[in-house]
């Protein structure tokens, strides 16, 4: 099962003033320039993998792969690929594999 989750935010300049609540997985700011933050909650201990893909579905970078405790988690993507090279401006997808659930999130990188 793949769920596409999106949200609206209120921004002034580069600052997000509103982050939606009660979402299992959110990414902000979006669009982003340089760094995007992922916040999510694990209902119980389990495996997780946060991966970034380009618009053609090619892997760009694995942010995290391993076991996660129950609770809230925060991770970041600095806009680089697995070799440390800056990713180009464009659309990317974050896929979060959390305890057998797959969540997809569209990201826009603007340099």
Keywords:
single chain, 0% helix, five-stranded mixed sheet, three-stranded antiparallel sheet, mainly beta, globular, 10 strands, 111 residues
User: What class would the helix/strand composition place it in?
Assistant: mainly beta
Number of helices: 0
Strand order in the largest sheet: 1-10-9-6-7
* End-to-end C-alpha gap: 32 Å
What overall geometry do the principal axes of the alpha carbons give?
globular
Strand content: over 45%
List the quaternary state of the chains. Answer: single chain
- Give the beta-strand count: 10
- What is the C-alpha radius of gyration, as a whole number of Å? 14 Å
Percent helix range: under 10%
**Strand and helix order:** EEEEEEEEEE
Largest sheet: 5 strands, mixed
Overall pLDDT, averaged?
A: 83
Write the layout of secondary structure elements.
Elements: E1 2-4, E2 11-12, E3 15-16, E4 25-28, E5 36-42, E6 46-54, E7 59-68, E8 71-77, E9 90-98, E10 101-109
Parallel strand pairs: 1-10
Antiparallel strand pairs: 2-3, 4-5, 5-8, 6-7, 6-9, 9-10
Give me a quick take on this structure.
By secondary structure, the protein is mainly β.
